[in-house]
């Protein structure tokens, strides 16, 4: 979920240096354009005077020069927020195991469970695609940072620089939003904390639904009676035990039905 930092991408510094060299070469043009804009005050235009243009020239140059440093700090802040949201409850191995269990249970479940599993697959693929796109966009914004931030120098080009700040905030904000969605899914739906249709869903499997032990009342009534030596009750008991075991087997609890038949068979 985290975005690679500048130290993890040594090649990004060389690309940024190329953009910075272009800014240094074009900085004089921005100064010239600003001077022309000031000289046209009270003649061609009356909106921008020296006090509006003069602060912009050095601020734009400083912001352009520090863009790589600022982006690195912003990325580290976003990664820290992501780790804070996820905490210690989500790690790549645990998420992988949970997703694998969910897929297996979905494939062995009913139509509704299969549909939920398919949605889960689509969401997982979309998460990977969004991650790749987000990283590529972030890298592109880092490389173009000096070229866009120098646009603070003139009021006519200032919207481009403001757009760069908003794009960086959006790209890294999506990372935190994805972390919130992931921790919510892992801690609720995939952990069995959500009750749907009268059942507790755990990794898209069903834990002890009411239908799995639909014959428990009848089995208990038979056990309360004199089992030993009474063939009709013994036959009824074996039938109910087998039916309950079959229900258990169908609810993704392999082996439990056989053990139930073996234990109860000894009493018959």
TrEMBL record:
Keyword annotations: Membrane, Transmembrane, Transmembrane helix
Transmembrane segments: 20-41, 53-71, 106-129, 136-157, 163-186
The keyword Transmembrane helix is annotated on this UniProt entry: yes
Stretches assigned to coiled coil: none
Highest taxon of the lineage: Bacteria
Name this polypeptide is given: TrbL/VirB6 plasmid conjugal transfer protein
Lineage start: Bacteria, Bacillati, Actinomycetota, Actinomycetes, Pseudonocardiales
């Amino acid at each position: 979920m985290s975005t690679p930092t500048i130290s993890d991408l040594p090649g990004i510094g060389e690309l940024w240096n190329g953009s910075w060299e272009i800014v240094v070469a074009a900085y004089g043009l921005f100064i010239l354009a600003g001077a022309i804009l000031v000289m046209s005050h009270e003649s061609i235009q009356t909106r921008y005077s020296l006090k509006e243009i003069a602060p912009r020239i050095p601020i734009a140059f400083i912001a352009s020069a520090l863009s790589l440093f600022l982006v690195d700090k912003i990325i580290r802040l976003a990664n820290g927020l992501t780790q804070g949201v996820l905490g210690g409850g989500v790690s790549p191995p645990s998420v992988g195991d949970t997703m694998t269990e969910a897929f297996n249970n979905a494939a062995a479940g009913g139509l509704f469970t299969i549909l939920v599993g398919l949605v889960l697959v689509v969401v997982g693929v979309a998460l990977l695609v969004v991650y790749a796109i987000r990283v590529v966009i972030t890298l592109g914004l880092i490389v173009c940072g000096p070229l866009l931030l120098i646009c603070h120098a003139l009021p006519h080009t200032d919207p481009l620089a403001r757009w760069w700040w908003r794009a960086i905030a959006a790209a890294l904000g999506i990372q935190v939003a994805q972390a919130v969605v992931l921790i919510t899914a892992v801690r609720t739906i995939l952990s069995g904390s959500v009750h749907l249709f009268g059942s507790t869903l755990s990794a898209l499997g069903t834990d002890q639904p009411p239908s799995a032990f639909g014959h428990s009342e009848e089995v208990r009534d038979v056990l309360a009676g004199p089992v030993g030596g009474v063939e009709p009750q013994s036959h009824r008991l074996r039938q109910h035990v087998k039916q309950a075991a079959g229900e258990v087997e169908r609810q993704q609890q392999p082996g439990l039905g056989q053990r139930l038949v073996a234990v109860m068979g000894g009493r018959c």
